[in-house]
Amino acid sequence: AYLHPDLDEALGRCEDSILRREAPHGDGAPALGIEEIDIFSDFPAADLAAVKREATARRFAAGESIVSEGEGAESLFLLTRGSVEVGVTVDGGGFHRLAVIDAGNVFGELVLFDLPRSADVVAYGDVEVLVLTKRSLAGLRRSRPEVYARLLESVGRSLAERLRHANHEIRALA
What we know:
By secondary structure, the chain is an alpha+beta fold. It is built from 4 helices and 8 strands, in the order ααββββββββαα. The strands form 2 sheets. The protein has a 4-stranded antiparallel β-sheet with strand order 1-8-3-6.
């Protein structure tokens, strides 16, 4: 057994071990289709097709930086395979994990609000995403405004759920 001098590091290592063992869409798993991404659960097929036409597939290797805190938001990421780690740099230069996001979810939502990135996002293992850039989102807004509005509503619900979860965790720590 190894004793960790830092509780956050110990918890992170435990979480890492569980994620490697239990992740349903990790290395070797097939990529999810856009219809399997949570925010699109109630989208009709034609709307999904419109979003998919605007998306570009990308891959990131384990440990590769996808988003950096403070940079301008240029893309919304639809996580189709693997997991990403979300965290911030803390005093002293250390990395503090805020969350691990699994396939079927999105990250990079601040692009919809033209705000800078609030955290770092790193590929936790090999990752596949569908990317919606500012440009592709603007194209969707012009060509299919009703789909763009539905996307905004779905992302808003997703962000509200994350905020509710964060508030619950903060209360538990208080």
